[in-house]
Amino acid sequence: MPSNTAAWLTAEKATPLEVKPAEYTLPGANEILVKNHAVALNLVDWARQTMGNELFAWVKYPCILGSDVAGEVVEVGPGVNNFELGDKVLGLATALYSNRAAEAAFQTYTVLHTNLASTIPSKVSYEDAAVIPLAVATAACGLYQKDYLGLLYPEASRRSATGETILIWGGASSVGTNAIQLAVASGYEVFSTSSPKNWDYLKKLGASQVFDYHSRTVVEDISKAFIGRKSVGALAIGQNTAGPCSEIVAKVGGKKFVASANAPPAELPEGVSSKFILLSELRSSGVEEAVFGNFIPAGLKNGSFVPSPPSRVIGNSLAAIQNGLEELKKGTSAEKLVIVI
């Protein structure tokens, strides 16, 4: 049996991560085992290491971090028929919710749930594919779950225009770049926000109008842009963004709801509701099959969906992950940090 190695968080707030052996776990029903070729780094990874039980009280130590993987299928669980040995795949590693080390990303081999994995075409590199899973899952949960925005599912051939508009605040983030593409593929017009340097990139992804979130008049400017349009609500990405999104949806016609990737404010404008996005709700909702099973493979193949934001490789081993997390703390914009394994 092959040997496995992982970058372990040995205790709450322990630094650095320790690279040492991990169990090689065979997949069960509805699972595949992937040999990782690239993993991406996310803010939640350094938050788990830095904040420990302040934010993730349910995590058991020692544990392995990481949510984004891309690699090759080396084992399939009983009854799995939608993946084969040798398939090139990306997937969402779910150890944060399961407390099962085998399901974490920062190791040589990761167990993935088949409904949270997608095949990827040969033209897409592992390092580019690795930027997708957590970001697209978060965006999909906020956009499509019935108790969030409940939008129409995306299609790789792009749905006909619905005549409705969504606000995606934080468009240059990992979640934002994926959300823009999903919403456009679902037939919605997209308004977004970013620094001016990223406007052209977001418009290339499909946003029709992009606004400078630093502007003192950004709420007024976006509200004016909605005149004559019907809103389907907003997706707020980033700290303290649900507030301005709530102000906007309160002023314009349409749905008065904000799906928020961060905790929304306690007080909202009258008639407006908001909900923090919980990825644990995605796993058996039907949304995961629509996005991971259908849209991503077809979209990557025909080019209607592209890995975003661009990847930046900052290391070539599990030992490089800790330095990568330190780099991530400094902040990134319109890029995602990746480790090649």
UniProtKB/TrEMBL annotation:
Pfam families: ADH_N (PF08240). CDD domains: enoyl_reductase_like. SMART domains: PKS_ER (SM00829). GO terms for molecular function: oxidoreductase activity, acting on NAD(P)H. Coiled coil: none annotated. SUPFAM superfamilies: GroES-like, NAD(P)-binding Rossmann-fold domains. InterPro entries: ADH-like_N, ER, GroES-like_sf, NAD(P)-bd_dom_sf, Trans-enoyl_RdTase-like. Residues 14-339 form the Enoyl reductase (ER) domain. PANTHER family: HYPOTHETICAL OXIDOREDUCTASE (EUROFUNG), ZINC-TYPE ALCOHOL DEHYDROGENASE-LIKE PROTEIN C2E1P3.01. This is LAMI_0A00232g1_1. It comes from Lachancea mirantina.
